[in-house]
Automatic annotation (TrEMBL):
Residues 14-107 form the NIPSNAP domain. It holds the Pfam family NIPSNAP. It comes from the Bacteria. This is NIPSNAP family protein. InterPro entries: Dimeric_a/b-barrel, NIPSNAP.
Amino acid sequence: MFPTDPVDRPAVIELRQYTLRPGRRDELIDLFDREFVETQEETGMVVLGQFRDLDDPDRFVWLRGFPNMAVRHRALTAFYGGPVWAEHGSQANATMVDSDDVLLLRPPSAGSGFAVCPSKRPQASAPAPDRIVSATVWSFPPGRSDGIALIQDGLLPVLRKTGPAPLAVLTTETAHNTFARLPVRTGENVAVVFTSYPDESAYRRHLAEVQAHPLIRDEVLPAIGREQTAAPRTLRLAPTGRSLIS
């Protein structure tokens, strides 16, 4: 038998969106990919993906995952109380206007989350892959599951039939944020669908095909619209050279 690389399937995921000072995104990405990847993972978390927001030149988006909420607390305590953040944290913070736009998420079922191999991560300074990752956030009233069910049972089957299967589908993690130093958005009930495309034209073709599908057009989207608390928001993301998600 041949050895296989271990696959990480985190059960708790943070989707973090940072608003940066004008023109400083590449500075943060260079620092992040050089100093904050392996050093975070040494504490027990996994850095899943780092991205440039294609629709906002001053926004950096990234995801990290944890086996559970207890490990999250221990890992964040260790990293933000450790020597690497003490040395480089002020430089990172100097690039940011806001870092509190954070969704705490989880896979709603086995196999719906991310599966990554950290051992296959590209080295620092690796070129960015020529791909687009879309992350569509659907928002519903807290405590209600009808909208989430419509995403899972109505939208996802058509997404899989008409284009690339989603990389992951996540919903809100309702556990209390036990690391208060880093706020997360509260009162949320979301479903987030992540999909990867070879280029923007493939993304737009898939989007148009899904929207024109009779079941989606006539039944699923109107039903979702009756449940949602806001219009869905899609992030169009360009992975950095060290992102495991691409």
